[in-house]
Amino acid sequence: MWPDNRHQAAVLRLLRDGGPRSRAELVDAVGLSRSKLSVDIDRLIERGLVDTVGPAASRGGRRSSLVQIAEATRFLGIDIGATTLDLAVTDGEMRVLARVTEHTDLRRGPAAVISQALELVNKLRADTGTTRFTGAGVGVPGPVSFREGVPVSPPFMPGWHRFPLRETLATELGCPVLVDNDVNIMALGEMHAGIARTFDDFLFVKIGAGIGCGIVAGGQVYRGATGSAGDIGHTSVDPHGPICVCGNTGCLEAFFGGAALTRDALVAARSGRSPHLADRLREAGAVTPVDVSTAATDGDPYAMGLVRDGARRVGQVLAGLVSFFNPGLVVIGGGVAGMGHALLAEIRAVVYRKSLPLATGDMPIALSEMGDQAGLVGAARLISDHVFTG
Amino acid sequence: MWPDNRHQAAVLRLLRDGGPRSRAELVDAVGLSRSKLSVDIDRLIERGLVDTVGPAASRGGRRSSLVQIAEATRFLGIDIGATTLDLAVTDGEMRVLARVTEHTDLRRGPAAVISQALELVNKLRADTGTTRFTGAGVGVPGPVSFREGVPVSPPFMPGWHRFPLRETLATELGCPVLVDNDVNIMALGEMHAGIARTFDDFLFVKIGAGIGCGIVAGGQVYRGATGSAGDIGHTSVDPHGPICVCGNTGCLEAFFGGAALTRDALVAARSGRSPHLADRLREAGAVTPVDVSTAATDGDPYAMGLVRDGARRVGQVLAGLVSFFNPGLVVIGGGVAGMGHALLAEIRAVVYRKSLPLATGDMPIALSEMGDQAGLVGAARLISDHVFTG
């Protein structure tokens, strides 16, 4: 099923990323002679990995010169969030054909969550008429050993430590599977079809229940020596700050993670300092980070203050990382990205003031374009990179 | 002069890194058929890039099966420091054949410093009987546009901004030249022949006049989007700290850079809080970071305190970077590395306590093995990578 060699792999990736092309264009891009590459393209067509396409196909016996990734190609993206299961089926160009989202509770353990996911997969299969997937990518909200395809000591996920997630899903789905940290697949999604399309070196900062960072270096996700790269949630921003679940004090997440924001919102609601959050608490019986986001967007001064304080601390951590990593772009995504301009303005203010001018010269700081599709498209992209290897 | 193709390049790199090998070993390592690779090896011998070697060479007409990088191969490493010019000639396996160090003053501008360097090159040429260099690598103590081979706004180097250093030296030396930041070449040196030999992802932290970090990701130096990656000297460690030359407050260098350490040593000497430094000031009329190092090694409590305070702040910055980058190894080098165990112990204490356990699990923090040769060997290695490309 996989390509025979690196030229075939190059053809598949070009068609995935750029859509249908003529044989002549592919010859130019791959840099092989026309006659040699034709053999490879014919082989890909023979094996059903590539289709001929377009008007040229109707010219009777003459072979078309336009080819595309086989229309039957189907990738599965599974984005396991802290409280949601999000799945999508894409075509060979990573376009989402169908998507389904359901609430979940990771604390029920891997068996229950996988069985829930497989039911959703069946639904997606039916919706899209998919009999087999070319591959599936999976994002997990915690550290992952990428090589082994297992979560490693994920906080908030009891029972998942070293669970053979890749192996189990590969058996169940009958296709190649890769498992990665959720922030890494979000970065990949943004690189494939979002604002990072033209960048080789960039950071994707996810602010949600947790705070993490996807690192792309030289067009590749950088995972670090043991796969934990990008963990910025536990960088100390104030030695006298609140105690964090990790045991240290003053971590970024202890100020601006989902739990911290919920805690601060509750205090603001109960004390009446935020009328908006107080109303919300009365109505719903609880307040969430999304409520803070809504209140801030509606102009509630206290909620805006919470967003700005959190953003300032994110900026503080990012300032050092921008000087260190010198990215071409910083993307802000995740649930809290809904806070939009106030969040972005404060992060920018701190980073542009505190990072080295040389590092920030042409560097944009921007909100994710892919929004809540980043992880799904990225998961599909991840496994397609793997499958489209010669 | 350069290899014709990537197989020849692979042979040259294998011989550079592993020394003489038989043709059979090269066939295994390169993964080409024996007959095909023999053509490439013969071509390399013909062109004088590779020699036959060893006892087999004496077996009359029969061609030896042991080959090595041509003995005539000569690389030049130029390590431009804040106050010194350090040059070495290496053979094709990056062994230093001759070396010369001289005091310099970068403020005299590029023309004067280059002319001083070229005199030293002539001395090295004479010492080693070198008529031509295969290539030269150059390290500069400031930001560099690697692609263009020019320094970019280097602090303490008036007149060097965008000076065409690579071009000038390539013309003068008549060989390919690459220019890089000094910390990057130190990292490369440590990777070639030092403690980082077996690591693909590591950080090389240089503590000297400035504080900087060489980043190696996937076996390659990572330079960032605009070449300034690794600048950690201006990471804020205390918002209420001293004002830094960069205009911000509380930067790492404002606490522990060469100038900061000199300032603190002078205060300690004048106030008599450090008898050792007071003696030194009386004798020499000045105190330097090296004096602090010596005093600390001799057990002067105040000097030891200065080292520990500085090391703690380095550790504070590294703790965040280790969580972010998840390196397999952290190497501490540069002038201040002479402070040895006290420095290392304090850095380790902070990093191991503050970084994520997942990131520090198997991660050693160690002193540079290459010492003051790291930059020279790294500069030679840098240009050899460039020249040995197919």
Plain-language structure description:
Chains A, B: Pfam families: MarR_2, ROK. Chains A, B: GO terms for molecular function: DNA-binding transcription factor activity; kinase activity. Chains A, B: This is Sugar kinase. Chains A, B: Residues 6-56 form the HTH marR-type domain. Chains A, B: Belongs to the ROK (NagC/XylR) family. The structure is a homodimer of 390-residue chains. Chain A has 390 residues and is an alpha/beta fold. Chain A has 3 domains: 6-69, Arc Repressor Mutant, subunit A, CATH 1.10.10.10; 75-191 and 374-387, ATPase, nucleotide binding domain (Nucleotidyltransferase, domain 5, 2-Layer Sandwich); 197-368, Nucleotidyltransferase, domain 5, CATH 3.30.420. In chain A, 44% of the residues lie in helices and 17% in strands. Chain A is built from 14 helices and 15 strands. Chain A has helices spanning 6-18, 23-30, 34-46, 110-128, 165-173, 182-193, 252-256, 258-271, 275-284, 289-297, 301-325, 340-354, 357-360, 374-387; strands at residues 21-22, 50-52, 66-69, 75-80, 84-90, 96-103, 135-140, 144-145, 150-151, 177-181, 202-207, 211-217, 220-221, 329-333, 365-367. In chain A, the strands form 4 sheets. Chain A has a 5-stranded mixed sheet with strand order 6-5-4-7-10. Chain A has a 5-stranded mixed sheet with strand order 13-12-11-14-15, with helices on both faces. In chain A, helix 6 crosses helix 14 (374-387), helix 8 (258-271) packs across helix 9 (275-284) and helix 11 (301-325) packs across helix 12. The mean pLDDT of chain A is 91. Chains A and B meet through strand 12, helix 11 and helix 13 of A and strand 12, helix 11 and helix 13 of B.
